[in-house]
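Archive transcription. Copying these from loose printouts into the bound notebook so they stop getting lost. Printout 1 of 2:
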Amino acid sequence: MSTQPQKTSNAWAISLILHVGLLLATAFLWTNYVPSGLKTAEQEKPVGIVIASTASNQVETEYFGESTYTTSQASTDTPSEQATPPTLNQPLTLPDIALPGLDQISANSALPSTGDALDTGQLAGGFPSPGPSANQIAREQGKLPQAVSKGPVGEVSLFGGSPAIGHDFVFVIDRSKSMGGQGLNALVAAQQQITHALEAFKDNHHFNIIAYHHRPTYFQDGNELASANLAGIKKVNDFFNGLAAFGGTDHEMGIIAALRYKPDVIFFMTDGGDPSLNQSQLSDLKKYCGGRTSIHSVQFGFGPLQEKQNFMSRLAEITGGNFHYVDMRKSSPKQ
């Protein structure tokens, strides 16, 4: 009666042994399985940077790792010679870029080249040539003697303004359309004032007149100022009578043309039309004056002065001159 339970127990034991064996075989095969097409790296290899330098009889190789580097040297002639650190012997080269407009830049000064004067070129077809730099003008002003007496000074007052004192005077007059007979008629008024002032000049006083619009016209060309004798005063009238009022306005060019003569005083006469002088231009003109030339501004207009602080008044102030406004309704020139 006990044979049947013993057979059942043996069957369970055999089944358990077979299942455990299958699980162990499956685990062993799984752990040793390698997918096809993939290979493991046999050994990790370091990565670095190599720089090789070859001389006439020496080869240097440098290996740069993450934090250190080593240098090995092989020499066929002098094995005992120590290796020298590598250097960069080739100079840094910059691209040759042509800056635009350099060959077209020209200063506002249109002055003839005359002997000892600042070399500024001559007019060609009405186009201005490059003018002097601020440093050139400052050097030329500095060359002038400081203590040489030129005799008694002269006083010039135009349109009842404050008198200007000196030996050499340059009168700069705007001849644009607004200053002519169809505008303010200021050219005729300036002619009368200048000729009257020249009549009081002494032999040691000299002058020139520059009428400008988009280019300058000189009463006397060359490097020398004129003398105020009877013949010279007659030529002044002829000069004004031959002027026609037209064209645009270049105030800076007219003033720089006058500074070429290194005068004591410049009378700058215009209605102050556009384009006005900006702060940079005013600062440059102050440097060009070099502390030796004062600029007296005379502004023309109809009616009361509209703007008391303008570029003409600032120019006079920074150069040691005076500003004067002329109401042409009250100062009509005599015909």
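Printout 2 of 2:
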Amino acid sequence: MVYIHEGWTLYTCIVHLKGGRNQQIYFFTRATPKSGNPCDMPEGYTVGVNNRTGIPYLKRK
């Protein structure tokens, strides 16, 4: 089930770091991004909202 918070959809994608390591990142967006897939809420995280911008973000419990 795709996680949606007040019109923002949670996406995930794998990024390739300079050291050769791959890391999974999560981000919220209202539009369809160029890369990434919609995803569920990951275990151990909650949603916070930036007071100034209103953009949601993930934070560890």
